[in-house]
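Homework-ish question, so no full write-ups if that breaks the rules, but can someone show me the predicted structure for this set?
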Amino acid sequence: MQGLGINVLFMGNNLPRLLEGLLITMKISLLAVALSIVLGTLLGMVMTLRNPVTRCLTKVYFEFNRIMPQLVMLFLVYFGLTKLFGINLSGQVSAVVVFTLWGTAEMGDLVRGALISIPKHQYESGAAIGMTKLQNYRYVIIPQTLRRLIPLAINLTTRMIKTTALIVLIGVVEVLKTGQQIIEANRYTVPTAALWIYGTIFFLYFFTCWPISILAGRLERKWQN
Amino acid sequence: MDLNFIEKYAPMYVEATGLTLRLGFIGIGFSLVIGLICSFLLYYKTPVLQKIAACYIELSRNTPLLVQLFFLYFGLPKLGIMISSEGCAIIGLSFLGGSYMAEAFRSGLEAIEKSQVEAGLSVGLNHGQVMRYVVLPQALSISVPALCANVIFLIKETSVFSAVALADLMFVAKDLIGLYYKTDEALFMLVVAYMIILLPISIMAAVLEWRLRYAGFGN
Amino acid sequence: MLKENEPLLEIRHLRKNYDANDVLNDISLDICKGEVVVVVGPSGCGKSTLLRCINGLEPIQSGEILLDGLPITDGKKKWSEIRQKIGMVFQSYDLFPHMTVLDNIILGPTKVQGRKREAAAKSAEKLLERIGLLDKKDAYPRQLSGGQKQRVAIVRALVMEPAIMLFDEVTAALDPEMVREVLDVMLELARSGSTMLIVTHEMQFAKAVANRVIFMDGGEIVESSSPEEFFLQPKTDRARRFLNIFNFEK
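A: Not a homework solution, just the prediction itself:
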């Protein structure tokens, strides 16, 4: 009897290695989220401009990101850019690039939606009590925009963390790859390792994403006015 | 760009597209059924089953499809449960999709005011009839945008099927890049294939939404 | 079957509470066939709740209600059957927005009573003609005015051929110009012998249509008399104070 397969988790430093793998996933997605928020906000403001050229360009950019599966984008950047520009992008860098592009598109759309959902008279109400345009933005518009935006942005974060799992398919060593390595290494000693390792990874993702989505839900309810 | 190469290998892409669409739509079909059932359980607050549905939704929405597939395809066999690649793909997609569809249906159902239900009951309809003739038709049209968005989302998710040894589009592209180094051509066909799949669906969804919005019942 | 002079609707010692609050306190009321009873009273006195209890939309804590001599609140009969005999019209009309006027009306007869579509449509059209809205039978609710919607709502309840009709402040949400057309329909119904229980704030209307006026306050029936008695010489102080609200003499 080789004992319960679950023991593979506690053998050697398997569990810490899995967690390290998850950390890599988190680092990539959080970096991409941070960049997306900054760039996306800018994009969102650009998207509200009435210039037909910017409208067209931003729309194409947004739609392309909406339609193309992120994995295809990863392939395009990882395999394609490498060949095209002769530069050798690592899987991790490719991932950050792809997710930032995607995240910026989504954030841009969220910001645009939030900006246009503020009733017109809010832009004028500040002026009515003597505020300058800048002050109006700072005290009236931006707080309201943030309230609509933050729960949606947190929701985007969860989605990004989940999508980052895809990077295993372009060879990045993250949690799934680490899991595969552990399973391989223990092929004879713990034949049922796959069940426990992948089950654990399932719950690792769950306990990472679930609290975040609960937070988003709470904030959304709190700020619903 | 090597057009001969494209011509020679396009059929592989076509076949892979067929696979993606077939498994995708089967998965979407199951998702709709699972989603509808879960939304009823949540709407009617059925004692035990409501909690189970809620747990299912949380689990499914907070884990990536890829991880679910790995578990189904590599993990379950260790318990003696062997499921084919296609089976895993469909089960995984349905598991994931069901929770998204459930949310879409649920928000449609909850948007219908209680007074509509009471009006239906007052005419002598029983609860089942109220759901069937009064609530559901209205709820479905409210859910359509979300349902369409979910369809697009699920088709995109099918891109991970290569992880369970299915010869889908990603597999074909990667294979060709690895074998022939024709990166540009392989990637080009890949993008075209997904465009062909998703653009029409995307446009149809937009049209459907537009038509429903303007035929809206409004009050 | 009802014996001679037996009331159509009997409410006996009805009690209903929400949490710790008594919403209806020992209500007893009899309504005979063909009678038009109007219930008036200040907001929150429980008038709407009373109607909703009769129709089974609200549960009751104690007491009983009998329709046609048979109890309906003992849980033995299905509400879907009972409600076929009780027609109710709500303040917010609540027509089904995804169906035409005609479909709204024949939904009950076809799906609940199993009547054939053509026969049901005929009855519906007759009633629509009676209230002057036959030309709107294929329109959707969103194309109708508030008054028209409410009249359709009345027809929707009437077509089920109920024994008694309940009206819950049906003109309260309407613009003043449209109130009259709805009240006219209700007057006509009363004249043709319908049994009606009406909750309303329209005092002139109440005077004209009622056989009996019930004044409720704080979940109790405070006064029950003929309209002449009630409006000219209310018996209780509370009734007097209530009627003064409608009095604008300087």
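Now go work out the reasoning yourself. Hint: The two ends of chain A are 61 Å apart (CA to CA).
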